[in-house]
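2024-03-11 09:14:02 INFO receiving multi-entity request
2024-03-11 09:14:02 INFO entity count = two
2024-03-11 09:14:03 INFO echoing inputs for audit
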Amino acid sequence: MNPYVKLPFTEWASEQFYFFGGLYNLVKDCFKEGFKRPFYWDLLSFQIYQVGVRSLPLILVTAASTGMVMALQYGLGLEKFGGKPYVPRLVASTILREMGPVFTSLMLAARVGAGIASEIGSMVVTQQVDAIRALGTSPIKKIVIPRIMACLIILPILVAISNLIGNLGGLMIGNFELGIDPNFYYQRVIETSNIGDYLAGFGKSFFFALFIAVPSCYFGLQVKNGTQEVGVATRKAVVTASLLILVGDFFLSKLFWIIEKWL
Amino acid sequence: MAVIEVQDFKKAFGKKVVHDGVTFYVKKGECLGLVGGSGTGKSVLLRSLIGLEKPDSGKIHINGADATLYTEAQWLHVRKKVAYAFQGGALFDSMTVFENLAYPLEEHTKLTALAIKDKIFKQLDEFGLAGSELLFPNELSGGMQKRVGLARAMMLEPEIILYDEPTAGLDPYNTKKIQEAILTLKAKGVTSILVTHDMPTAFAVCDKFAFLKDKRIIEQGTIEQLKQTPNSMINQFIEGQIL
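2024-03-11 09:21:47 INFO inference complete, emitting structure
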């Protein structure tokens, strides 16, 4: 058998091994360099603006739509069983624990993850990353850390905003479509939502921020041979971030339930 | 004393061997012309001298220290004294010309904003770029981009400069400007390596030459020494018949 012919599984496994090894090295470099001077606060604030402020319209529309659709579906579905009063609790719990963090992160993965991978990939192709190194500065500090930190800071805030808007959307539909009194809806959300709902969603958002930023930076830096690879890196970044969010969500949900029970 | 010394340098990308035992040295204040056909790995060699590529084996000594043992953090310090002029300029496209030139000064010096401004305007004048400080790289011609890249590489007044085809694709005016800049630095005692196919420029600025072929340096010496060589390919190269 020709030893140079790789089996598909072997090739896939070695790619995954290489990918996770690369992520590990990138995170290790970030820890190694992130605590050393100089700190580029201006770059961080620019990235916070790019990642956070400029993503806000997208997040608002997504959150409002999600809350409205959920209220409508729960309301119409539960109506025949007389379950309309449970709509506020169900919508709030689903948004706070799952839909808020997951949908916000998925939208951010599409918008910001793609942006990060393509921007860094283009910088590699045009030798700007080499220039950063050749001028005695670190691409990890200049490019990677500000983007990861921006995602870590801004995603929990976006999730909080998304939760609020999602519930407002639910309240609107509850009132106009299902005839639920807005005061009753509001009171039910406040009374039935517990701190665990907020913390589970909030806690997940930190992990999701890493799932978006780290692979996106990694795939951007892996670009070698030209603009075609920038497209490939962008696609890989979005797919990987989305998969990590969706698969990771299950394990994180489980983890936060265990923590809640333990507390 | 040799400022740059390369011994038995070997580099391969996968199964493709690019260098197999490259050896040469450059003394202080000298300009070495590194010439050879396209795809012989001149740029790879130059990138290795500044730590952008790692050799598979062999030694690179810079100012007497073994640079092959440097970590990336140590290279960052070395690169303040060893500049690299990229073939295409490698300018930061989100920054203006002024910001590109200010970058190394802001990172590595404690100069005031006014002093940085003065230094940049002086540099722009020297490179014939006055008035372009607010332009972005995509608003510059290829020649201007190269000159800005060169000006940026020289901002920290390095001891060693590595030029990667600084005159490729330039008109005679821009070529002359870059030749003058290299000669000015040489007069100040800066050690340099020039990778080029532009033989008139190489003859104008280089003290000696190293010919890269078949993965190694096949001949090196001054132009007078190389004229004595029996190798017809090198003679043709010198006479500009093949580039």
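2024-03-11 09:21:48 INFO post-check: Strands of chain B lie at 2-13, 16-27, 31-36, 57-62, 65-66, 82-85, 160-164, 191-195, 208-213, 216-221.
2024-03-11 09:21:48 INFO post-check: The mean pLDDT of chain B is 90.
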